[in-house]
Design a protein that fits this description.
- The structure is a single chain.
- The protein has two domains: 103 residues, Winged helix-like DNA-binding domain superfamily/Winged helix DNA-binding domain (Arc Repressor Mutant, subunit A, Orthogonal Bundle), CATH 1.10.10; 62 residues, no CATH class.
- 58% of the residues lie in helices and 24% in strands.
- It has six helices and six strands; from the N terminus they run αβααββααβββα.
- A hairpin with a 5-residue loop joins strand 4 and strand 5.
- Helix 1 packs across helix 4 and helix 1 crosses helix 5.
């Protein structure tokens, strides 16, 4: 029988592999915590060990951490996937189907902000399809509150805004 930590690691690798791209860490964490697979401390240890071993690569998109599977992670999953039970795989597959739209939106509609050296903030809003930028906008705003509001508004209305821009341009 494998240790629980091994099962957590394989589950994370499985989810990232089946999602075929990056997934927000908070979404993966939610799956593991809500299904009672792991506690928060063990989960943080699991992420650290996977990153240290070069099996996952974390990246930032605004305030979110996005996880991607490395080639080594994919190879490790192939070698050890038989150790991951069918029940966990089935739950992960069902969760991925339920989360498909949210996972795709996390990848396609991005928003982040940074402090500008001259004062104020710069907000970057983007739409991507298969990692290719389709729309990329940069806004200058006066303060952090305005930057946070722009990011929040983009997250809530990005599809609508993108559609309106396309409609007005073409």
């Amino acid at each position: 029988m494998d240790s629980p930590l091994t099962v957590y690691k394989l589950t994370i690798l499985y989810i990232l592999d089946r999602a075929a791209g990056e997934v927000a860490a908070d979404r993966v964490s939610g799956f593991l915590l809500e299904n009672g697979y792991v506690n928060f401390v063990s989960l943080m240890q699991t992420y650290a060990e996977l990153e240290e071993a070069g099996l996952i690569r974390p990246g930032r998109k605004g305030e979110r951490i996005m996880l991607s599977l490395t080639g080594e992670g994919r190879d490790t999953l192939r070698f050890f996937s038989s150790r991951l039970g069918a029940e966990i795989k089935d739950q992960a597959e069902a969760w991925l189907r339920d989360q498909k739209i949210e996972i795709l939106e996390d990848r396609q509609f991005t928003a982040e902000y940074d402090r500008h050296p001259d004062g104020g903030y710069v907000v970057r809003l983007a739409v991507r399809e298969r990692r290719t930028p389709v729309l990329d906008m940069t806004l200058s705003v006066p303060d952090k509150a305005a930057a946070e509001e722009a990011v929040r508004g983009w997250k809530e209305k990005s599809g609508e805004i993108y559609s309106l821009i396309i409609e007005k341009l073409f």
